[in-house]
């Protein structure tokens, strides 16, 4: 079924899907780096007491998402495991966005 869908996209559509996959991984690596940078700077300026729970949670979720992407790509874990972890990361991200919208004044 997937093969038939990819054939219907043609070579251009298939190329776009490949670029989108790499762009998503790049964006994930970028946000993980940014979150890690924030946590490091907070720790550096005041120790563990100064590290924000939100920033450390963001970093942990980003690392989990990137690690899962790598493990699925290497074939170490199966796609359903990746989907389950991806769903958890999606729920976390959506809940953070909703929380920010609700608490923004």
Question: How would you characterize this protein structure?
Answer:
The protein has 105 residues and is an all-alpha fold. The protein is 88% helix and 0% strand. It has three helices and no strands. Helix 1 packs antiparallel against helix 2. The chain is elongated. The protein starts with a helix and ends with a helix.
Euclidean distance between termini CA atoms:
48 Å
Number of helices: 3
Helix share bin:
over 70%
Number of strands: 0
| pLDDT averaged residue by residue | 84
Radius of gyration: 17 Å
What structural class do helix, strand and pairing data support?
Answer: mainly alpha
Series of H and E elements: HHH
Low-confidence residue ranges: none
Estimated share of beta-strand residues: under 5%
Largest sheet: none
User: In one word, what is the shape?
Assistant: elongated
Secondary-structure blueprint of this entry?
Layout: H1 2-46, H2 53-74, H3 79-103
Helix pairs in contact: 1-2, 2-3
């Amino acid at each position: 079924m997937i093969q038939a869908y990819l054939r219907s996209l043609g070579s251009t559509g298939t190329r776009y899907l490949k670029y989108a996959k790499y762009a998503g991984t790049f964006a994930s690596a970028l946000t993980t780096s940014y979150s890690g940078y924030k946590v490091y700077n907070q720790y550096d300026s005041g120790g563990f007491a100064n590290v924000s729970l939100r920033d450390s949670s963001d970093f942990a979720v980003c690392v989990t998402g990137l690690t899962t992407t790598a493990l699925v790509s290497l074939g170490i874990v199966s796609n359903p495991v990746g989907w389950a972890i991806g769903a958890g990361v999606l729920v976390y991200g959506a809940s953070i966005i909703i929380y920010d919208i609700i608490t923004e004044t």
